Structures are given as C-alpha cells and as structure tokens.
Amino acid sequence: MWTTRPEGFAIVSALFLITALAVLGAAIMHFSATQHVTGAQDIQGSRALAAARAGADWQVTQILAQELPNNPQYACGPAAGFSFGDFALNVSCTHSDHDEEGNKVRVYNITAIASSGGSPGALGFVERRVDVVVATCRKTPDGDLC
To answer: In Å, how far from its chain's centre is CA 60?
Structure first.
C-alpha cells in the first residue's frame, strides 16, 4: 500500500520567509540611513543659522559702535563676505533716512546669509538667512543722540 506524503512544502515556505525578512531588513536599513542623513542636515542647518546670526550681530555692532554724540551716522558699506568655520557668510546692509518729529531716524536693513555644502540641490547643502532691522535716532545727522 502506498501512502502519499507531501514533500518539499516546507522549503517553499522557508524561502518565502527568508526573502520577506531580507526585504524588510533592507527597508529598515534604508530608513535608518535616511534618518541619519536628515539628522545631520538638521544639525548643519542649526549651525548655519548660528553663523548667519553672528554675521547680523557683527553688522549691528558696527552700526552701534558709531552711535556716538557728534559723530556722523554710520553709512552701510558694501556687502562683506566671510569664511566662518565651514560656512560662507555674506552680510549686506542698506539704510534709509526718515524725519520724525524733527529728529533724523536712520533705519538699517541687515541681511546675513550663511551657506555650506556646495550649490542648491546638492546633498549636504545648507543655507540660512537672517534679516535684522535697526533704527537709530539723531537730532541732526552729525549731532547728538535723541
């Protein structure tokens, strides 16, 4: 008497499980690598923001250092470029004058841009921009402070 037993069914299931686990492992490694790259870019973005803030603070310091009685009001110079750690830092400044109740108010618009990592679209490219407005007041352009 012949009895028939199914043979080879377990090997098909084992191959399916091995393949499924390999695909799952590859997906987990891909997501983990993406998360690490994203985290590194986030840190670089924070560093770029700190560099841009430092550039804006530098320009504000230049302006406020000129705010002395009987000293001409500060005039924005040409845009300045710096190397700040791994970042290229560009600081620009424009100003406009306004009369307010007989006083001369000068409004400065400062823009600082820090970038690193090549050009936009490149992996690792980071850029942050900080805009600052500062106003100073004089009784006359070369006179006492308000």
So the answer is: 19
- Which is nearest to 47 in space by CA: 85, 82, 19? 85
CB atoms within 10 A of CB 28: 10
* Angstrom distance (rounded) from CA 69 to CA 10: 92
CB 49 within 8 A of CB 130: yes
Name residues whose C-beta falls within 8 Å of residue 80's C-beta, 6 or more positions apart in sequence.
Answer: 90, 91, 92
To the nearest 10°, report the CA torsion of 91, 110, 67, 96: 130
The one-letter amino acid code at 46 reads S
The secondary element (H helix, E strand) that includes residue 84 is strand 80-84
- Please give the model's pTM, rounded to 2 decimal places: 0.78
pLDDT at 142: 79
The answer to whether residues 113 and 128 touch, using CB atoms and an 8 Å cutoff, is yes
With a cut of 70, list the residues of the chain below it in pLDDT.
1-6
What residues contact 7, with CB distance under 8 A and at least 6 apart? none
Q: How many other CB atoms are there within 10 angstroms of residue 19's CB atom?
A: 10
